[in-house]
Amino acid sequence: MVRLFNFFLLTACVPGLEGLNKHRGPASMSNLKVKRADTDLSDGESLEEDADTSKATRKSEKPKLVPSKKRKEPAECVLTAEKEASKVKNETGVKPKRRRKKKISDILAKSSPKPGVPEDLQKLLNEHFGAKRSVIELEELKLSDACFLPANDLTHSFSSYLKAICPKWAKIRKNHTEKKSVVILIICSSALRCLELIRSMAAFKGEGKVMKLFAKHIKIQEQVKKLEQSVIHVGVGTPGRIKALVEQDGLSLKSLKYVILDWNWRDQKLRRLIDIPEIRKETIELLETRVIKLCREDSVKLGLF
């Protein structure tokens, strides 16, 4: 149909075409037919191309369906204690209260201080050596009740306590003539506490000589020299310096009769002798290396003041 339409359109636009065809003859007519066929083909091809391009444009104009992306589910997050605290702070504008560590003063405010007893010392030794020693070695560190002096019930002054545990002090003092040794050894947590106890035992010591056995402002060589030259009855000092003097053979324990631990006294921070890590370690080492053996041999008595 399209080709016929093109043919009629061509004949209408070119008048006298039939006359020309008659004058030209059959050859020209055949050429004309070929040209017409070519034009018809070209027109048909162009129409087909137009149809194809229109189809392509229609296809391109169709909206493409974009596959919907799957939404990722929010991962469950675990807030740490710090993040929770910051979250609370941001919401309320107030810092969350931190749990305050219990202090010795808080514990003492709720309950009155209890005097030290021999079981406390034995418990201290077991806690310190429990994981390090065998059962047989722990047995060697055990002290019977006969090794201990009566404990201070917090009603005694230092002089009255010494009089109670050593009623025959005057006789013992006179009989003691050995140098480099003492009869009573008192172990304190600090030099200031040593000086305080030395002043408070004035009513007990009588003519007995008392020596300071701590490291503050006193060289160990001076203490060794004084022990070698003099007869000392009572030694008051810290466990670290006493241990050093014994190890250097500056202090002998041959004449030793009593060892007193300043157990119940507390410093400004309300710490006892065993509450200060360094002092506790030195005290336990001194007891282990020297004192416990003498106590088990029944030559030395141990007291808790």
Q: What distinguishing features does this structure have?
A:
305 residues; 14 helices; Rossmann fold; 5-stranded parallel beta sheet; alpha/beta; 5 strands; single chain
Q: Please, could you describe this protein's structure?
A:
There is one protein chain. This protein has 305 residues and is an alpha/beta fold. The protein has a domain at 115-304: P-loop containing nucleotide triphosphate hydrolases (Rossmann fold, 3-Layer(aba) Sandwich). It is built from 14 helices and five strands. Strands 2-3-1-4-5 form a five-stranded parallel β-sheet, sandwiched between helices. The chain starts with a helix and ends with a strand. This is Cms1 ribosomal small subunit homolog. Residues 1-19 form the signal peptide.
Could you provide a short overview of the structure?
This protein has helices at residues 2-13, 17-24, 26-61, 81-92, 104-110, 118-129, 135-140, 158-165, 169-175, 191-200, 202-205, 220-229, 239-247, 277-296; strands spanning 184-187, 210-213, 234-237, 258-261, 301-304. The chain has 305 residues and is α/β, with parallel strands linked by helices. It comes from Anolis carolinensis.
Topology of this protein?
Blueprint: H1 2-13, H2 17-24, H3 26-61, H4 81-92, H5 104-110, H6 118-129, H7 135-140, H8 158-165, H9 169-175, E1 184-187, H10 191-200, H11 202-205, E2 210-213, H12 220-229, E3 234-237, H13 239-247, E4 258-261, H14 277-296, E5 301-304
Parallel strand pairs: 1-3, 1-4, 2-3, 4-5
